[in-house]
């Protein structure tokens, strides 16, 4: 009997040696870029971009699938590429699909809206969080720009925080 | 929860040993053999043989310098690869532990059986290599796996720890002993490499995010070399 208890208690000892780690650290995930939109004329007032569609641009200049759906927003939170040191997005204001007067025929549909292309350059840094969470990526020395075209809806931009580590506050302000 | 199970089983083990001791209390003699007991941890040899990515070897010794006290120590080498969800790493290094065992067992005649409680100071010196890791990125928009497979070797790590050990050693053959022990450890000094943590410490075991405690066990086989009798 005593031996049985001893053996069982030692087995329990062995089992208790292993502990599961679950990632619960706050902000352990790689942060997305947070952009807030402001009024160009009154630069302290938030101003929503109407019917905005966000589309990632891949390395060959083509479109990824849209990031989210068309909506009117004062702020966007978009992911940056962690294996590259730059990311581009098309921000299409007043996005709509013109069906050429033929709602049942999608072949002649075309997209309308004012498209501006933003480019974000940065330096990647890996930060160790914990055994369960592993590493997160931090974007340092963030540089933000937009491609000039004949009809930019983006008028000005400011980098508020050039280190993207959390999503608590905006990193970029866009004035329009 | 598991911490509670650990302490309960530790108590149970102590209680059952104490009972066995009480039964044999009636017939004891004053003759004592003094000498050196040298052995190895067979659990490490078995684990080396059956677990892939694990190699370990330990030499342990105790020298009885007083009726109930021995100087005891372990020296070993461990190499272990651990695969976690977000990372895969290898830790390799040496450790030694030195301390005192108190033998609570009253032996018959010339036997050197032991039910002991011991305290150790441990020092582990080792190296971490991150074999691969995945950047934690829950937004899959860019279809990047975030997996990095270029190994990163970190500088030398050192950890100091204290260890409480309880166990027994029983003579199964002429001067040949089999033992079992359980260890509870707490690290007192631990230097992490830059941008990484010591997740496994040779001689100590796995570390956890939220505590400095570690547990371990050993099954020893050792040989007693008698020096003199008193």
Features:
heterodimer; A: 176 residues; mainly beta; 6-stranded antiparallel sheet; 4-stranded mixed sheet; 1 helix; 8% helix; elongated; B: 230 residues; Porin; 8-stranded antiparallel barrel; two-stranded antiparallel ribbon; 11 strands; 58% strand
Unreliable segments of 5+ consecutive residues of chain A: none
Q: Supply the number of helical segments of chain A.
A: 1
CATH architecture of chain B: Beta Barrel
- Roughly how much helix do the residues of chain B carry, as a percent range? 10-25%
Molecular shape of chain A: elongated
Q: Largest sheet of chain B, order of strands side by side?
A: 1-2-3-4-5-7-8-11
Oligomer: heterodimer
Average residue-wise pLDDT of chain A = 89
How many β-strands of chain A, per DSSP? 10
> In the CATH scheme, what's the topology name of chain B?
Porin
Radius of gyration of chain A: 24 Å
Can you characterise this structure?
The complex is a heterodimer of chains A (176) and B (230). Chain A has 176 residues and is mainly beta. Chain A has one domain (27-175). Helices cover 8% and strands 46% of the residues of chain A. Chain A has one helix spanning 2-15, and strands spanning 33-38, 49-57, 63-66, 71-73, 75-78, 86-98, 110-130, 134-146, 156-159, 172-175. In chain A, strands 2, 3, 4, 6, 7 and 8 form a 6-stranded antiparallel β-sheet that branches. Chain A has a 4-stranded mixed β-sheet with strand order 5-1-10-9, with no helix packed on it. In chain A, β2 and β3 (63-66) form a beta hairpin. The relative contact order of chain A is 0.21. The model of chain A has no long low-confidence stretch (mean pLDDT 89). By secondary structure, chain B is mainly beta. Chain B is 13% helix and 58% strand. Chain B has a single domain, classed as Porin (Beta Barrel). In chain B, strands 1-2-3-4-5-7-8-11 form an 8-stranded antiparallel β-barrel. In chain B, a hairpin with a 3-residue loop joins β9 (200-201) and β10. Chains A and B meet through α1, β7 and β8 of A and α1, β10 and β11 of B.
């Amino acid at each position: 009997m005593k031996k049985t208890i001893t053996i069982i208690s030692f087995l329990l000892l062995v089992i208790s040696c292993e502990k599961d780690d679950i990632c619960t650290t706050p902000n352990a995930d790689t942060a997305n870029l947070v952009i807030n939109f402001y009024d160009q004329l009154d630069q302290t007032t938030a101003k929503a971009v109407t019917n905005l569609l966000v589309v990632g641009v891949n390395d060959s200049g083509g479109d990824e699938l849209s990031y989210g759906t068309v909506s009117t927003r004062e702020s966007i939170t978009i992911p940056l590429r962690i294996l590259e040191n730059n990311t581009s997005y098309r921000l299409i204001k007043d996005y709509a699909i013109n069906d050429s007067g033929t709602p049942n025929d999608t072949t002649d549909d075309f997209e309308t809206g004012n498209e501006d292309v933003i480019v974000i350059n940065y330096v990647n840094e890996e930060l160790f969080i914990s055994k369960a969470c592993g590493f997160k990526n931090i974007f340092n020395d963030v540089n933000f720009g937009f491609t000039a075209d004949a009809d930019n809806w983006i008028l000005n931009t400011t980098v508020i925080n050039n280190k993207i580590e959390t999503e608590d506050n905006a990193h970029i302000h866009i004035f329009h | 929860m598991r911490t509670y199970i650990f302490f309960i089983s530790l108590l149970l083990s102590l209680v059952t040993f104490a009972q066995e001791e009480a039964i044999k209390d009636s017939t004891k003699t004053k003759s004592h053999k003094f000498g050196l007991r040298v052995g190895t941890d067979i659990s490490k040899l078995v684990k080396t043989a059956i677990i892939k990515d694990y190699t370990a070897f330990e030499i342990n010794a105790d020298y009885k310098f007083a009726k109930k006290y021995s100087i005891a120590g372990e020296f070993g080498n461990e190499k272990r690869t651990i695969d976690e969800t977000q990372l895969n790493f290898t830790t390799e290094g040496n450790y030694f532990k030195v301390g005192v065992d108190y033998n609570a067992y009253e032996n018959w005649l010339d036997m050197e059986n032991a039910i002991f409680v011991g305290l150790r100071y441990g020092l582990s010196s080792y190296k971490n290599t991150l074999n691969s890791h995945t950047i934690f990125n829950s937004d899959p928009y860019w279809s990047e796996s975030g997996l990095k497979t270029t190994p990163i070797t970190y500088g030398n790590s050192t950890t100091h720890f204290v260890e409480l050990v309880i166990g027994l050693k029983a003579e199964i053959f002429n001067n040949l002993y089999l033992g079992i022990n359980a260890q509870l450890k707490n690290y007192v000094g631990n230097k992490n490499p830059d941008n990484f943590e010591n997740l496994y410490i040779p001689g100590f075991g796995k570390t956890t995010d939220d505590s400095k405690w570690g547990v371990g066990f050993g099954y020893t086989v050792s040989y007693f070399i008698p020096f003199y009798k008193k």
